[in-house]
Design goal:
The chain is mainly α and 587 residues long. The protein is 67% helix and 0% strand. It contains 23 helices and no strands. 47% of the residues are buried.
């Protein structure tokens, strides 16, 4: 039994060694501009046309600009962690490869499986939204036709098969299969149109702006005050924080840039620049439309489902609604490309490592793209978009994204303190005594280089920090009213947890860092990645129970695939078996 557990642990802990000098089979054709446009397109989707109005009316009022700033800072923390890994491990697969290098094979498979779910649901929801948006322009003619011809009377499924969504998905899949450069050019056009329309909305709306709308007060009584108390922060600080949590999802999507490591011309330079630039541009777009919306109309007069058309209707510019429509469709198309682009790359990376079926990673000799992975992923996405109502599944995309952000930030911490090349690796001569380890926690041993022992200490501290984050996030998500009310027992517990969090990060800070030279590195380590982990876990804890149940079912399916196929066909396992056989051959 002990031998089996040891063998299982060794399988779980198998780590991938990435040779960054090895040439990729994918075509390196993407420039920094292409990657930036991909990041903007996948992030700045239909949310820019909806999110600002809904958050302003329901949560934050004019302080929605602060909510977007908080969300942008939190997203930038995660983006910087991705940027370091994109420079460190320039390979297709994004967080999957990062966790394979750092955490081991088992965590890498779970990460890859999570990313597949994230991008499938993200793509399916975007294409379904595109279908519904186009259908509204034609008075729901598609919906009425398909409901009369092929109605579906099943709970949780769509009321009709959306063949338009299926067709759009297959067309986009074919476009992606024909080449990364060609599909990125199409994405650049969609993104340019989208940004042009957003800029038009900001400039046109500013002509009718009135700063006094930031201090107006809705009709409100002491008994009924649904729309807050007016002013810049009508719902108070809790409303701004709640709005920031909602706005955070408006920045999801930039991580697709990190999946292009094998198709970027200069990934060590391009990926960090593209991630930071795309997040910065997206923030200014959100900030600009938020200011315009809340200065042209009072926050309590916003239309949360269609704020821009409503704004132009109120000011008498009916013709401007067509620009908004064009921008929304372009934004959705760019989001669809951004969501579908990384999915075959994840599948390709996992198939190349033997963790999923090999045929899914075959590269087209003509187009130099993972054509089978692209088409199969497109077919799966199209089927979901055709027959499912995706509203209850959208939260699953959020939980997947937040989980990947947390693991990437954890990987940054572990790799930053890994054993240095300058350290003599023939044997770890640090004593494993209690006194030595306690002194090392505060850096009293004055080691010049990170060692195997210090790397192990950091790994243990990161695990403890994640557990403390889960406890803190659970307390804040379940008992936030008691904390804000100032109840002593909850305040004391929160203070203890915060002190423990800061102490753990401080112990990590005192450890010697690795001497590995990086083209881009996250600043303020370990505090910035640590703060990113805490934010992501807190947002995960705010999701509903049904989301966790559905996510657990998907992970259970993935575990079955790993234990029945991936663990036995892993290329690392096969390589070790070949090496062992060669050692046993008599010479």
């Amino acid at each position: 039994m002990k031998w089996k557990l040891q063998s299982l642990y060794k399988a779980f802990a198998r780590r991938k060694i990435v040779d960054t000098t090895q040439e990729s089979t994918l075509a390196r054709v993407l420039s920094t501009l292409d990657l930036t446009a991909l990041g903007i397109g996948s992030t700045l989707g239909v949310g820019v046309y909806v999110l600002a109005g809904s958050v302003a009316k329901d949560y934050a009022g004019p302080a929605v600009v602060i909510s977007f700033a908080i969300a942008a800072i939190a997203s930038m923390f995660a983006g910087l962690c991705y940027a370091e890994f994109g420079a460190r491990v320039p390979r297709a697969g994004s967080a999957y490869i990062y966790s394979y290098v750092t955490m081991g094979e088992f965590v890498a498979f779970l990460m890859g499986w999570t990313l597949i779910l994230e991008y499938v649901i993200g793509s399916a929801s975007v294409v379904r939204a595109l279908s519904l948006y186009v259908d509204v322009l034609f008075n729901d003619s598609m919906k009425k036709f398909f409901q009369s011809v092929m109605p579906i009377n099943v709970d949780t499924l769509s009321s009709y098969p959306d063949f338009f969504a299926l067709g759009v998905t297959l067309v986009f899949s074919a476009a992606l299969a024909f080449g990364a450069k060609e599909s990125s050019m199409v994405n650049n056009v969609f993104t340019l149109v989208n940004l042009t329309v957003v800029l038009f909305v900001i400039i046109a709306g500013s002509l009718k702006a009135d700063i006094n709308n930031w201090s107006t007060t809705p009709n409100c009584t002491e008994i009924n005050c649904e729309r807050g108390k007016g002013g810049f922060v009508p719902y108070g600080i809790p409303g701004v924080i709640t709005g920031a949590a909602t706005c955070f999802y408006g920045f999801i999507g930039f991580d697709c840039v990190a999946t292009t490591g094998e198709e970027a011309r200069n990934p060590q330079r391009s990926i960090p620049i593209a991630i930071v630039a795309s997040l910065t541009i997206v923030f200014f777009a959100y900030f600009g439309v938020s200011v315009v919306l809340t200065t042209v109309l009072p926050y309590y007069e916003q239309d949360p489902s269609a704020p821009f058309p409503h704004m132009f209707t109120v000011i008498g510019w009916e013709w401007a609604k067509w620009f908004v429509t064009i921008g929304a469709i372009s934004g959705l198309c760019a989001s669809l490309l951004g969501s579908m682009f990384p999915l075959p790359r994840i599948i390709y990376a996992m198939a190349s490592d033997g963790l999923v079926f090999k045929w899914m990673g075959n590269i087209s000799s003509r187009f130099q793209t993972p054509i089978m992975g692209t088409l199969s992923a497109g077919l799966l996405t199209g089927i979901l978009a055709t027959i499912f109502e995706l509203e209850p599944l959208v939260n699953m995309m959020s939980i997947c994204t937040l989980l990947t952000y947390s693991i990437v930030a954890s990987c940054v911490l572990i790799l930053r303190y890994e054993e240095s090349d300058a350290y003599e690796k023939k044997g770890d001569h640090n004593p494993r005594t209690f006194t030595f380890i306690v002194k090392q926690l505060v850096g009293a041993n004055k080691l010049n280089h990170s060692t195997k022992l210090t790397a192990q200490i950091v790994t243990a501290l990161v695990c403890c920090y994640v557990i403390l984050c889960i406890c803190t996030a659970t307390l804040l998500s379940m008992y936030i009213t008691d904390v804000t009310a100032g109840k002593a027992s909850f305040i004391v517990l929160l203070v203890i947890l915060v002190i423990a969090l800061i102490s753990t990060l401080s112990f990590i800070y005192f450890q010697p860092v690795s001497d590995t030279k990086l083209t881009f590195s996250v600043p303020l380590v370990p505090f910035l990645p640590g703060f990113s982990i805490l934010i992501n876990i807190y947002l995960m804890m705010t999701l509903d129970q049904d989301t966790w149940i559905r996510f657990s079912i998907w992970m259970a399916i993935g575990l079955g695939i790993y234990f029945l196929y991936g663990m036995w066909h892993s290329h690392i396992r096969q390589k070790k078996s070949i090496d062992n056989k060669e050692k046993d051959v008599p010479r």
